Every structure is written in structure tokens, then in C-alpha cells.
Automatic annotation (TrEMBL):
Organism of origin: Pseudaminobacter salicylatoxidans
GO CC list: cytoplasm; plasma membrane
Record key words, sorted: Oxidoreductase
Name of the protein described by the UniProt record: Glycine/D-amino acid oxidase-like deaminating enzyme
Gene3D superfamilies the record matches: D-Amino Acid Oxidase, subunit A, domain 2, FAD/NAD(P)-binding domain
GO MF annotations in UniProt: D-amino-acid dehydrogenase activity
UniProt lineage: Bacteria, Pseudomonadati, Pseudomonadota, Alphaproteobacteria, Hyphomicrobiales
Record bears the keyword Cytoplasm: no
Domain FAD dependent oxidoreductase: 19-412
GO aspect biological process, one term: D-alanine catabolic process
Pfam families tied to this protein: DAO (PF01266)
Secreted in keyword set: no
InterPro entries with a match to the protein in the record: FAD-dep_OxRdtase, FAD/NAD-bd_sf
Similarity comment: Belongs to the DadA oxidoreductase family.
Source superkingdom: Bacteria
Amino acid sequence: MGPQVDPVPEDDSRPDSADVVIIGGGIIGVSAALFLAKSGVSVALCEKGYIAGEQSSRNWGWCRRMGRDPRELPLIVEALKLWPQMEELTGTDVGFRRSGILYLCENDADIAHQENWLKIAGDHALDTHIIDGAALSALMPGATRSYRAALYTPSDGRAEPQKAAPAIARAARRAGAHILANCAVREIETTGGRISGVVTEKGAIRTGTVIIAGGAWSSHLCGSLGIRLPQLVVRASVMRTGPVEGGPDNAAWGRNLAYRKRLDGGYTIADGMLNYHHIVPGSFRYLSDFLPMLMQDWRMVRLRAGMDFFTGPFGLKPSTDPDQTVYEQHRTLDPMPATARLDEVHRKMEEVFPLLKGAPVLQRWAGFIDTTPDAVPVISPVQSLPGLVIATGFSGHGFGIGPAAGRLAANLATGDSPIVDPKPFRYERFIDGTKPRPTTGV
């Protein structure tokens, strides 16, 4: 079962119409709703389950510039301007702290890899630099293992996934947005070749603009409109401990382990490398799109075959109830965590930080990460269907970039000046013959 998420009260009524309808109540969708509502646009957000029920509450909680694909750097710079404002914008402490992030290097090859990122990032690297020796040891109090060096960004930080999106959703409602939980969109309607409305399980909403911010569900939603969106999902597992005294206050990534200090004093811990992909029909449909990434990152993804191919949420026959869509059948994706793998990661963490021994493991969970063939999101209008904007495929780095990505989606939905150049995130790159340029990000 996923982590407990701060509640968001449901709206009592569904509007008959809205300027913009957003599908998906993750951090991207609620951020778009907030900025639209604050600019006077009428907006209705429809979430089939509860706000932040899926990956927006299940991620590591990192807010990082470091290690990103160069195409994302301008957007994360804007996001890191918004995160410090989040408590004022929402009236809630969402746990954002500029506590710094480390990418740990075990050998010369690791150091060379991180130095290459510094060259690519250029001016966007800002305060990122290589550290070693005593400077690195000071950032890892309690560690009994030393590392050759680390890439370090003091201005990167962390926030609490279980608090952030719900707080933004509540702020969006106060600004005038309708936040409709347990309200699946069954159909996106078109008239005369453009968006004209949505049909939800609670009734229809007329609109000229729809933002699909459905995370793992976005490709399925686009497919219902005849739009090919190459997107697959990988299963990532996470655990959290009880409070620990004396450990590092920052976050770090290393081979086979990653950690983040939590606002409650415990640690979020995960495998730094390995995720799982469950083979579904889309795995074959988009094989040619994802093959370059699979060949590059084959050590980081393990394939799993099973009944998911037939009866899973993205399988051949995901729904058997004629009165319910697949979105209602699967209100919240809640996959089982890779418990054995997490136990191994926990042992490695205790070897590096013996002070973690005895700290209780309070919870383990997993989530489905929506990925694109180049690991860069789609934040884009669709030229073939006026009124449709897609904001998805954040490939495991959507939480930190979320507020700015939502703002960009809102800009594109209304035709306002975009917060950054949206060209790197255009949907058409997947259908116009552009070859994907995948990056690992670390």
C-alpha cells in the first residue's frame, strides 16, 4: 500500500463547463490548475482516484538540477525559484529545504562522467562542483565508508511528496479551481476536429482545452483519441525508516543505493540503479522507440513477464466490467514493492551508515514511473488536435520539476508566453522522424 498522503477535501459539485479541464491530480496537474486559477481561468481538475495517489506521492522527493538532461535545465531553474515560494503559495510547509544533493563517485570513470555533465550543463550548473576528502566526509556524518569524490550541488534540495501536491491542490481550490477526486474521465470529446469536452463518471464538462497530465495513463488516454504517444512504465520501489539521529541532512545517489533525509527525521531509501518493466502489449508497440534507451541502460531495467500482459491495467483485457472503464477499475496504481531488493539496499545503507541499524523500517511501497524514449517529458500542444495539451513522461524526474512544468502546461493551454522555450518538450518529436537522444541523468 502506498504512503499516506495529506487529504484534499472533495468538491461538492461538478461544473457544466470550464475553460480548461485537467486530467490527472499529480503534481503536474495540480500545479497547472493553481497557475490557471490564479490567472482567472476557469479550470476543472479530474482525478480518478485521490490527489497524488500514484507516482507524485511515491517518488524520492528530490528537487534537483544536478545531472539533468540539458533540455530540462531551463525548466528546473524555474522550478527551483518556485519551490522556496511554495509555503507562501499554499499556506503549508511542504518540506522544501535546500539541503544539497550528492552523486557519489567510486572510481575515476565515475568522476569523469560527472565532470562531463558539468561541461554540458555550462552556466546552468551554477554552484555544482566536484568535492572529495574532508569536504565530502563532512556531508556524510556517521558514514564508515569513504568515496573517491562526489558531484555536489548545495542549492538542490528536497520536499515531501506526500504533502506537496495535496497542498498545491488545496491552494488551487482556494483560487477558484474545481478539484474533482474519484472522478474518472471516461471519454475526451471532439467536435469539428478540436477538443469540445470530456465525459466523466459524474457527468459531462464542456471545454475547449484539455491538459492530459495522467502520468502512467497518458498514453492510454491519447490512444483513445487516435494519438500515438510512445510511453511505457517502470516499477520503482522505495522504503522509509523511522527517525535517525546524527545522519546526513542531505540526499545522495550512489551505485545501488539512494537516500534522502525526511522532514520527520527518517530516511527515504531506494535502489540507485534498478527498476522493473512489466511486459505489456505496449512493450511491443513501442519497442522500436525504446530500443536505443534499452540498449544504453540495459543494466538499469529488468523485464518481467506475467499476467499483466493480459489482465493488468495496461494489458489486453484490463477491464471486465461493462459499466466501468479501466480508469474506474484501477483507481490507484499500487504495485507490490520489490521487497527482497529493498532489503538488500537497506543492508548496504547500514554498512555505509551503521547509525541506521536499529531504525525501524516503517513502510515499503512501489510506483509506476511514466517514461519516454528519450527520458525527457512531453509538455506540448498537439498540432493535429487543437485544444489538447499533453504534460507527461517525466521519466522519474517530475516531482522536482513539477511546479514549473505545471506552469508551462498552463501557459501552453492559454497561449500565454511560456515560462521557458517549450520546443525541447514538443510532442511531434516522436512522430516526425526525430531520433531519440536518451540520457540516464546520472
